[in-house]
Amino acid sequence: MGERVVIVGGGAGGTILANSLDPKRFDVTVLASSPVHLFQPALLYVAFTGAHPRATRDEHRLLRRHVRFVQDAATKVDLTDKVVTTSSGARFGYDAIVVATGMAPDPSQIPGLAEVDARFGDYHTDLAQAEKLWSSLQAFNGGTIAVGQASPIVKCPPSPLEGAFLAEELVTRRGLREKTRMVFFTPYPRAYPSAPMNEVVEPIMRARGIEIMEFFDVDRIEPETRTIRSIEGDEIVYDLPIVIPPFVGADITYEPCDVVNEDRFLITDKETLQIKGVDRAFAIGDGSNLPTSKAGVGAHLEAKAVATALAGRPVRFTGRTHCPFDVGYGRGTFVIGSYDAPVVKARPSRVKRLMKMAFEWIYWISLSGVIEPVFTVYFKLTAPKPAPASGSVPDSSSSLT
Asked: Please, what are the averages of pLDDT over each run of 10 residues along the chain (401 residues)?
């Protein structure tokens, strides 16, 4: 029998990793609480265009035959004794472990947010919530639409702005633009966290009449007065709130307990992807505290890096990101950067938007690993240029791609 590898989580990172490991060398088990694999970027288009793509598939069918799939939620990971305990009471021993659990929305952190999400929906939780938001947008007949994030941690950094752009496009196409005030709020000092990309994005927002409220840290929401209040004392009175909730790591107990931070994200070496102080234990995807985008492309590249490490070959994860970004009206761009390179100032185009729309089809194929050589060439050709070696460093927000 080969080295026992347990992968906790069946999202993009966990699935790609499982399919990348050599069955002659590894005995692979994937533990996931759900048998359903969700293509999360589809939620944006369900919420703002009413699209109904094939956003889910059976996780078991996405895995290669040699991979053992177990539908059971991990409740405890003992990194000392190398055992994973599940909600059913089952115990899985391992030689190496990779945690790919993603992160979960936690609206309870913001008073009033759970009530607002339950009424209006959102596009970061699940399909049902995205469909509810589409219904809310269809019922909207004018007033203030407030779009923003309730905490700095978010799935896919472009997504808050994508929501603002697509909401503005929708009300324009419905003939409601003159009756609508569009407000975008963010805890960051600019509309987009990274300065180079903000130079692209902010002029588009201003040209479309989208107001920007920077340094807006959400303190609470008052549904009875329809008001979003910030810690800084600012407020937005809304008719339709589209609020991205805070996120936390998976609700799993770890031994030792100091491998997670206060928000339950695993403390992970940004280059080796090893969990703090533990050999043959790695974290990939949204559940880690890596200083890079929480996005599917990142999970993909992290999975390939860990597969290389498990095979005994030297590897360094570069923090590479390549996030597609829909700016509305048929145009898109990509947010490209790495630990060593500042974010690329990439202008939107119709071709880039078409590339994003093709991603859904490519995504399902990519999970199998059969087109990995194509990805290798593509990422090499589109690699960002490293920062100058003269002692200057990239903009500190370049990691917040």
From this structure: 94 96 97 95 96 89 96 98 98 98 96 98 96 98 98 94 98 98 98 96 98 98 98 97 97 97 97 97 97 93 97 96 96 96 94 93 92 92 80 41 60
pLDDT for residue 401: 60
Q: Residue 378: CB partners within 8 Å, gap ≥ 6?
A: none
Residue 394's pLDDT is: 39
Q: Is residue 316 part of a domain?
A: no
Distance CA 295, CA 385 (A): 21
* CB proximity list for 159: less than 8 A, separation 6 or greater: 44, 123, 124, 244
pLDDT at 113: 98
* Whole-angstrom distance, CA of residue 315 vs CA of residue 338: 15
Which residue carries 């026992």 as its tokens? 4
Instruction: Tell me what pLDDT residue 397 has.
Output: 37
Determine phi and psi for 385, rounding to 5 degrees: -80, 135
Same domain, yes or no: 233 and 112:
yes
Last residue of a domain, one of 246, 262, 295: 246
Domain check: are 274 and 190 in the same one? no
C-alpha distances (whole Å) from 185 to each of 56, 193, 219, 308, 356 are 31, 12, 13, 40, 25
Q: What is the β-pairing status of strands 253-255 and 74-78? A: parallel
> Which residues constitute the domain of residue 147?
107-246
Burial 67-101 (b: 16+ CB within 10 A, else e): bebbbbbbbebbbeebbbbbeeeeebebebbbbbb
Please tell me the distance from the alpha carbon of residue 390 to that of residue 388, in angstroms, as a whole number: 6
pTM given for the model: 0.93
> Which amino acid is it at 390?
S
358 CB-contact burial (10 Å; exposed 0-12 / middle 13-18 / buried 19+): exposed
